[in-house]
Amino acid sequence: MELKGTQDLFRLAPGDCVSKRNLFDLIQHSKVAGSSFWSGEDLKIGNTPQQGINWVGALPACRAVILKARPGAYADDGWSDNENTAYHYSFKARDGVISHAEKANAVLIHQPVYRYPILLFTEAGSSWSYEGAFDVSAIDDRFVVLVRNRMIVESTRAFRKRGPTTGRVA
Asked: Does pTM top 0.70 for this prediction?
């Protein structure tokens, strides 16, 4: 899928792939009024595209967090179950020191309070594979544990059971 604006992030379905170049450009240029990726002041993506943690909108109650994970990059990172419903994601560190006050870490720590979705992407060659929307279920000193957003999973299950022609998804 090609992302043309920040709002396209919210239209992704698990399994969709986005080229690394496209996501990089979206993050980089979402901040530039008048660029082809500009979606408005409240949809600017914070942090640099090289970082693994980005956020949409203003802190502390941002609209979403974008996580880019490279399996094996950090010892604590990765799926913690065979069904891929829980993921450990390491906090950002500077010179090996983790600060929970760092903006990139704070958006993960504050997610249970503000309830914005965490959009998890895993590396897939020259693309990022969208894994789905997640919530923080536990906070460790070095990482957070993410679980699939239950409301989205339940809505998807209801949609699959009832089908698209029976009306609204619960």
From this structure: yes
